[in-house]
Amino acid sequence: EKKYFEALDFYEKSVAIHGKHLPPDHPDLGSSHNNIGGVHHCLGHYDLALDHYNRSLKIKLKSLPAQHPSIASTYENMGLVYEDKDEL
Questions:
Q1: Which residue range(s) make up the domain with 26?
Q2: pLDDT band for position 88 (50/70/90)?
Q3: For position 25, what pLDDT does the model report?
Q4: Which of 59, 58, 48, 56 is CA-nearest to residue 81?
Q5: CA-CA distances (angstroms) from residue 73 to 8, 9, 20, 32, 52?
Q6: pLDDT tens for each residue of 3-15
Q7: Chain segment 37-87, per-residue pLDDT in tens
Q8: Residue 65 — φ and ψ, nearest 5°?
Q9: Which one of 50, 55, 70, 78 is CB 3.0 to 4.6 Å from 33, fit for a cystine?
Q10: pLDDT value at position 5?
């Protein structure tokens, strides 16, 4: 579990740096939020995972073409969280 919290720390640092130097709808910010969502999903923090996946999705929908594979990946990740969340 320690490795997940270390990963969160690095991903949050990434968001902070990107946030200072990139526009708020830059795809790299979307990727960072997607990664944070993945870690929260692994930790069983489903609501936090969905929050970050939603942030990622908003950014990607603004900055990428509608059929971009990265958007599809975020939708898939959100679906996986809902699958796991319903199993509780």
A1: 1-87
A2: low
A3: 94
A4: 48
A5: 20, 23, 26, 13, 13
A6: 999 999 999 999 9
A7: 999 999 999 999 999 999 999 999 999 999 999 999 999 999 999 999 877
A8: -60, 150
A9: 55
A10: 96
Q: Total domain count for the chain?
A: 1
Q: At 46, which CATH number?
A: 1.25.40.10
Q: 3-state SS of the chain? A: CHHHHHHHHHHHHHHHHHHHHCCCCCHHHHHHHHHHHHHHHHHCCHHHHHHHHHHHHHHHHHHCCCCCHHHHHHHHHHHHHHHHHHCC
Q: Are the CB atoms for 10 and 45 separated by under 8 Å?
A: no
- Which pair of tokens denotes residue 59? 């950014």
Tokens found for residue 60: 């990607």
